[in-house]
Design a protein that fits this description.
Elements lengths: L24 E12 L2 E12 L3 E5 L6 H8 L7 E6 L2 E2 L7 H5 L2 E4 L11 H11 L5 H14 L15 H13 L5 E5 L7 H16 L3 E5 L3 H7 L2 E6 L2 E6 L1 H4 L6 H11 L8 H9 L10 H4 L3
Parallel strand pairs: 3-8, 3-9, 6-7, 7-8
Antiparallel strand pairs: 1-2, 1-4, 4-5, 9-10
Helix pairs in contact: 3-4, 3-5, 4-5, 5-6
This protein binds adenosine-5'-triphosphate (ATP) and magnesium ion.
Adenosine-5'-triphosphate (ATP) binds next to helix 1 and helix 10.
Amino acid sequence: MSTTPAGTPRPHDPARPGTPEDPSDVVVVRDLHKSFGDVEVLKGIDLTIRRGEVVCVIGPSGSGKSTLLRCVNLLEEPTRGSVLIEGEDITDPDCDIDEVRSRLGMVFQQFNLFPHLTALQNCVLAQTNVLRRGKAEAEKVAQHNLERVGLGGRGDAHPAQLSGGQQQRVAIARALSMNPDLMLFDEPTSALDPELVGDVLSVMRLLAKEGMTMMVVTHEMAFARDVADRVIFMDGGVIVEEGEPSRVIGAPEHERTRAFLQRVLDPTHVDPGAEDRKYAERHRTNVDGIVPADISGPA
Ligand SMILES: Nc1ncnc2c1ncn2[C@@H]1O[C@H](COP(=O)(O)OP(=O)(O)OP(=O)(O)O)[C@@H](O)[C@H]1O
Ligand SMILES: [Mg+2]
């Protein structure tokens, strides 16, 4: 039990996940289960993300990382359990999910930019549609965020005129333009050519430094190690272990974590491409990149 007096922010304690929530907690997931048909994909997840915390979720292909992230903004409806965003239970049928989603930025592997709109217009659209900002103000916010991601001079470009890394940075600027309290990233760099990954990770590092609360599903172990306050290793629909990156990545306690890290980190491992092949197989029929119209504006 927490002995912190009511109203006093509790110190950040990554070693005690799932402890009683604090009003300042951005995400509280309790006993989350998710099944697709007969297949139980999430088998009881408990997770708390404090304001300003950067949490990286790692784990093998098919372990349920994307499903967990999608439950956090109700793109998937949990079968059991609850998800609280800033104290509000989004699994409650009375919850105004569109309002809650307007406080969450989501960045997918696929960038989901509108091809017929410029970079600036892509960043303006949801601001005017969802937040009801005036055009001039929305453009100012959009321009500011394009500058933040290093694309201040490319507002007039259409997505087809931009590299994959630039498009992903526009997608991040678009999410930031909604002034989110939480940014959710699902493998934002895994569709990019290796030479374009660095710029996107740099932007994410900057956001982390600025104090943005972030939940990042990633295969980028160096990023997780350097930037995360806490790393969560998932396997088979459960959190196997979590803690400071230096411990989870540097000195994992569980055999499953060790085996996964060996597969992804050790180039001399007997089958170094196994994780990549599993990933490619699963994503041949990828459902992760779909953004429902209600959070991305008109189709
Ligand atoms: N809409 C769906 N319908 C049926 N099964 C699904 C659906 N979405 C995910 N699954 C299944 O749930 C399991 C977990 O999928 P999920 O996408 O969450 O894994 P992941 O950890 O993100 O994997 P990856 O690293 O490949 O992205 C997989 O077995 C997947 O096939
Ligand atoms: Mg995934």
